Amino acid sequence: MATPAAESARARPLPLPLPDWRATKALLAPAPGRLEFALRLALVCTASAGVAEWFQTPEPALTAYVGFFLLRADRTTSIVMGAAMLVLASVLIGLVALMANGLVGRPAALLASMTLIAFALFFLTSASKLAPVGGILALITTFALSLIALAPEGELATRALLYAWLMVGIPVGVSTVVNLLIGPAPRRLAERALAQRLSAAAAVLRQGGANHRDELQRLRMEGPAEIQAWLRLAAAEHTSPPQDIAALRHACDATTRVLLLADVLDAALHDPAARTAVAGTLDGMAGILARGGYPVEIDLPPVAHTALPAPAGQALAALRSTLAHFADAEAAPPDPDPPAGFLAPDAFSSPAHVRFALKATGAAMFCYLLYNALGWQGIHTAFITCFIVALGTAGETVEKLSLRIAGCLAGALAGVAALLWVLPAIHGLAGLLALIFVVTLGATWVAAGSPRIAYAGFQIAFAFFLCVLQGSGPSYDLAVARDRVIGILIGNAAVYLVFTRLWPVSVAGRIDAALAALPGRLARMAEAPDSRLAAVQAGKAEAQRGAIAADLALLDYEPPHVRPDADWIAQRRRTLHCAGALTAPLALQSGAPAPVASALDALARRQQPALPPALPRWLAQPLQALAASIQRRNASTPHPGSTAHAAH
After folding, report:
1. Nearest of 185, 252, 221 to residue 2 by alpha carbon
2. Which DSSP string do the residues of 257-324 spell out, in sequence order?
3. Using an 8 Å Cβ cutoff, are 301 and 283 in contact?
4. Which end of the chain is more exposed for a tag (fewer CB within 10 A), N or C?
5. Are residues 559 and 502 in contact, defined by beta-carbon separation less than 8 angstroms?
6. Quick count: other Cβ atoms within 10 Å of Cβ 433?
7. 36-46 residue pLDDT tens
8. Model pTM?
9. pLDDT tens profile 205-224
10. What is the CA radius of gyration of the chain?
11. How many CA atoms lie within 13 A of 30 on its CB side?
């Protein structure tokens, strides 16, 4: 998904920022691949609900909702994700089954077991690569344990655990079939993404304009990591010749360089004919990729070099060389960064992971005890909600909370409308599934968008499923819908209070750590011995910039007692802007003078850099601006949250 650009540094007085409807409209606009993904996810959820209704398994709403955690853009990742989740769920529920006989009729032991298992899985969610599915695994396991409390004997408890396993098994089976039949190949997605980037560079050169420039910046800050992952999956599938995969990997690195060079040309090349010629070449290459091929032997049309500014002439020469070797089928350079292990480096040294697990587990168990103490099983969705909305930092939690409350209200409204006016006219499973598919498609369209809005789509579907899927077949009980929506709101409120009042974690610490590492990444780019290695480092630097911009946007959601002041935020935004302004000029300097890399390394070590005296102005100015910005940031008083680890 796209990483949002940083927003204004203006501090907002409310903990839940007011929506920008113009921005929301843009976030809901069509994008390449969005409709296909939304249709596929809606089909998986609807078919899962249909299987659950046909076999009359409990909690069909939860069965349908699990599909949101299984599907990814490509078929391979989706199938692997489903298989891994099924294995993990089987192991965990198998362990619960071994414990079941000893827990039936022993509420204290049952409560202790639920708490310990939830804590362990939440800890792994924060401190390991289990993060994408850790919350849903914790939910399924603890929900299975909660079913034991409703079973008067061991045999019924075992059956309840089987039903809990089916909540995962059914959507995994449906997702696997759907992805094998209609899931897009990872190579196709990689080609589509490369074509989109080339088209964006061409649009900037041909038309200019703020919208096209913003799109170019957004694609720059996405980085190439997702495309590279798709190409690795395509190689693992063995559905494409190795030569094609090698050529596309080279094209991926070259496209990163093209985006940077297009930025330089947009600022320095003012000849409309030359801009149009370059744009036409890039559009032609994008068309080849969109049709499933890859361009070779690309020759940039000759451009008159008379009176061209120095950066424009160098950028054209660099672009000509890049396009001439755009898809060479040569071995990829080794990844300069060592692969990360399963556990985070600070998994057992940072208290943030334990605190996250304590907060999330505390909120969930409070809701569990609340609805049991009140004897109000209808609001058990409060317990479920805690596993879905808990996130590492206060900003992330509040952002997702606001999206989930908006989504909950929209989904509940759709569910109540269906109960009042649609379901009374439906007398079979087919009609119910048609209704579910139509509403779910709207929710999955939202969920397939930017992270700034995606979680609202998750909650729209969740609230709608809980209202409409009340048992086997269509049901019209408004009291059930009311109770479940109340439960969702209680769960959201519990998570908000716990995560913003108990050990609140600001995203500020993550921002400062990433900004401190960014000059070092630019130094590796500057000293790279060839253009491809420089492009690899540039892609990592751009992705790092995108992550920092997203974190800066999250600061608007932090409560006032957690959020840094406006000056702190403005200074970090300035440093990020200066780093972005330097990346494109560095793309012209493969194997840049050693003093450039040395100056950047000094900035990374918080030392006074020795700026080279003989650099061209278009490189010296952004380097000096970055150095001045970092020195001002280092001299300023750090925000207290900067010293705290921000859990991921």
Report:
1. 221
2. HHHHHHHHHHHH---HHHHHHHHHHHHHHHHHHHTT----S--PPP---TT--HHHHHHHHHHHHHHH
3. no
4. N
5. no
6. 18
7. 999 999 999 99
8. 0.87
9. 999 889 999 999 999 999 99
10. 26
11. 4
First to last CA, the chain: 17
Give the type of residue at 500: T
Cα–Cα distance between 453 and 464 in angstroms, integer?
17
What contacts 292, CB < 8 A, 6 or more positions away? 188, 191
User: Of 199, 187, 216, which is closest to residue 75 (Cα–Cα)?
Assistant: 187
Q: Which residues contact 438 (CB under 8 A, 6 or more apart)?
A: none
Q: Which two tokens stand for residue 186?
A: 């990872």
Q: Is the separation of the CB atoms in 611 and 316 below 8 Å?
A: no
The single residue listed with the structure tokens 């606009």 is 29
Rounded to the nearest 10°, the torsion over CA 296, 301, 302, 307 is -120
Token pair belonging to 208? 């200019």
Q: Token pair of 299, please? A: 């020759």
Residue 128: φ, ψ to 5°: -150, 180
CA atoms of 235 and 222, how far apart (whole Å): 22
Q: How far apart are CA 448 and CA 28, in angstroms?
A: 9
3-state DSSP assignment of residue 454: helix
